[in-house]
Design goal:
This protein is α+β, with helices and mostly antiparallel strands. The protein has 29 helices and 38 strands. The longest helix has about 50 residues, at about 875-925. It is an enzyme of class 2 (transferase).
Amino acid sequence: MSETSRNPDGEEPSVLENEFEPPSDRTEFPDFRGPVAPLEGHETVDHFGLIYETQAERLAAVVPYIAQGLERGERCMYIRADSSREAVLEALRNDGIDVDAALESGQLSVHPAAETYLDGGAFDVDEGYDRLERAKEAAHAEYEGFRVTAEETWLVDDEHAQEAFMSCEAHVNDLVDGEESMALCQYDRTELPPDVIEDVIRTHPYLIYDGTVCQNVFYTPPEEYFGPDRPARENERKLRTLVDRTDAEAALETEEWAQRQLYAIAADPHRSFEEKIDDLLAFGREVFDLEIGGMARVDPAADYYRIEAISGSPDGLEAGTEIPLSDTYCREVVQNGPTDTVPMPTELSTVTGELPESKVRRSDDVQAYLGTCVPIEGDLDRTFFFTSSDPSDGAFSDRERTFLRLMGQWVKYEFEQRRHERLLRDLYETIADPQASFGEKVEGLLELGSERFGLDIGYFTQTDDDETFEIIAAVGDHDEIRAGVRDTLRDTYCEKLLASPGPISVTDAAEVGWTDDRAYERFGLDAYFATTVHAGGEEYGTLCFASESPRDRTYSDSERTFLDLMGQWLGYELEQRRRVRYLQESYEITSDPALSFDEKLERLLELGRERFGLEMGGLNHLPSWDGAFRLEKGVGLDVASDEELGTDPGAGCFCRRTIASDEPVDTTDARESGWTRDEIYREFGLTSYLGTKVSTGSSPYGTLWFGSTDPRDRPFTDDERTFVELIGQWIGYEIERRKHRRSQEKLYEITADSDLSFDEKAERLLDLGREQFDLDMGFLLEKEGDAFRVVKTEGTDLEEGSARLSANPGNYCKQTITVETPVGVEDVEAVGWDDDPLHREYGLGCYLGTRVTDGDGVYGSVCFSDSSAQDRDFTDADYAFLDLIGQWLSYELERDERERRLERSNDRLEESNKRLEQFAYAASHDLQEPLRMVSSYLQLLESRYEDALDEEGTEFLGFAVDGADRMREMIGALLQYSRVETQGDPLEPVDLEDVFEGVREDLRVQIEEADAEITVGSLPRVRGDASQLRQVFQNLLSNAITYSGDEPPRIRVRAEKRGRKRAIAVEDDGIGIPPDEQDRIFDIFDRLHSREEYDGTGIGLALCERIVERHGGEIWVDSEPGEGATFSFTLRQPRSSESGESSA
């Protein structure tokens, strides 16, 4: 046997499953190899011989044979030989047959061979036949038919019985032929001798072997096979079989060659449709041995005939030729009425005597014609034909006619496929046009559908719950069907459509009895093709095409598909538009800065009720997992906010199921979902429900839900579940953001409170962190060697300042201080920290900490912990908030260190100032006194001995006096420089314009002598020491005049706002300062010019810098040699408490 008949498990497939058809259908076996039809002399497929080699193979045929008989109400008789009764019944039970019922009713019976074939001890042909005939007649009287199957292994080793039983087969054929009867004989090839199997093959018209039902070409009627003329008949049969087989093989070979050629033409990707038609016609002429082939476009109603393609050498005929259809032989093949299939071709020839007369003279030359009609959906039909002038070319075979029909079917398919593709392209271009509005697309869709279906009216409606409809768009000319019409659904075609379980397709209203209907009286539509449009699973309206005249053909499957595609696109587009609208509205609500969170939440709940068509909605909060939900906000239900909703934490549906799921949860009918036991259903009657979990960070907060006391008439869509999920995500984000903002505000209040000490702030920050992170313990730790000293702690009994904590390397704080970002561990056991001393001693089950630094590097860490592991992940917001705490502590510790350093620096500065004061005192007393004595004696010498000195002596005396004067000036300037900080007046509001005018008056003589021009802009009020600022202006103006160069000084003084300070600029056009010298000019006693060039002490600009620094400002110069210089300095504006006047 062929192994291909076995399944992968080695068992035989049930090859006869569903294949033993009732007698009226027994001519077809679609699942088996080879044609199986009644043989000559047999009216039905009725007598089978099963040749098997294994029990699995036998049962694969016998069990479905019996099963189908029982299913069809036939009486089934099983004759067993080797098999026991229990084995037979068990095999039938394993196939799902109710064996006990069949036995009890008498429809099934199992008999041993000893009680049938061998009743009496030996096989008797007549007795065996009579027994089967009586069983058949009894079965026909009570049942739909009769079928018998028998195990024939009782024939083994009994040659007499074998020969007698084989001769009995003639009687069995007579018994079951033409009757509602069937016989299946079972032969074991491994037990019975080959000559018996040979007799089986010869005497059974149908064989089952190797998974195949075979029409037996070796079959010989038993009366012939066992008759006296058997040898002669056998010789004739074998010879005829050889001839028939040779003819069949030749025909089959020709047919296969023709089909391969046809496929090669049709599948050629390089040939156009028109070229393929030409090739097909040329090939047909060769196959049919006819001279001319052609394809014509025809319309019987208009007697229209136009040649579209022609092959051969027809006289006077070419593509484009038009003649009356009635003058052609093609009129004989054109169908009188519409049809969807290509009919069997028509043969007209002088050979058959069926060649009609033709009005066309050249048709006298046509002696043979073979053609068929090709009906084209949505277009005029075609004829596909071949002709010849040779009368001997007639008498076409069935294979030739079938082959021409096959060619016509391909032509039909190609025409309709091309049209279908064009319409699909038009459909896509219509709906995908980015420049077209939705209304324009709908109108284009209606026009395309009207063309596709050949119906001149198309319209799209929206139906409402109040049994009304509105025509959204319409094409065609009809008084009652226009865009904008709104009316009741009663007595309309749409009413019929909505009451129908699917689309409606009517070609003639009269045929379906609509002409007496009020809708027909009102609209007069004879043809109607329409479908319901659904958006998001909800009925939206109808898409309809119609005509006031009947349609001449039925609606094809492709037309139904095209209508369905248009309806699907409308539903999708409507749902998309609705989805976008609701998303836009939700965005407008959530982004409105004028609305509070509660107002936004209420509007979102109202929007959700409208979106889902449910009567109520709410936000529930679950404070603790083993507690009850509390309603925070609700609309459409009579429940007060903060009321408990359900108290059973261990079970339940609705919100209990929702908060435990990462996906939205819904039910359209709680009664069908088994939710009626839930307390929410019992108390509130909530029947339909859609909810989603609301989380803050990674922690469940509660649920957002919508529901109704009535069941929902449609399932919730993915878009609806996505929408409720988006709203829930925004609510969770907003709650988390508000919580985080409140925590940040508390953090700011704590850190900005000037009345709190660092220790008090640290304590409050630890409490705030414990609340924010929902952890019991908080620590501020300072690193000391391998341990950490507890500086501050909340939520523990550890002693601050002395307690020390130790951890293994890489764990807890020892890991925290090595990285710059916070460290979070939700479950210390999961990361292997459970053997750490901190875990063993204090039971720290989770950890969240960050590094704290001071001015000298790592200080320690601030961290939070709990005795149990966390059931949620630490969020980015948690890490960010902890980082803020760590940053503030680091800043405060660094600031404290800076203040300590500043105090030490101030101490040194005070000491320096004291020494400077002592120097100043010495300069004003101890240095001045000898200098005055020198000056006095020099003046005395000059007055007494002036006449005694010669010119050189007088010059030397002048040098001494001048040096003493310069020494006095330098000591005075140095004294003034040293007393800027200690001898200055308090800083207070000063009007710089008054100060500058005083300076201008002091320098009036110098200004006039130098012919200086000074331009002054508006000067502001500042906070300063008027006398010192007067010194700054005096030094800067004096320098600008002194270093003006050869031209008269031109000086400009202006002021501008720079942040919270005021910048004053004194600009001149003098000699300028080289860039590499600009840093030196503010050094004390550092001069850029010799005294011979310019007079001065070299301390003026240093004094200006010291005064400006005392005022909290800075001074700088911008200059280029030869282009002047601009000296700028900044001063603070007065405090608002010091002066009610605004500064310029």
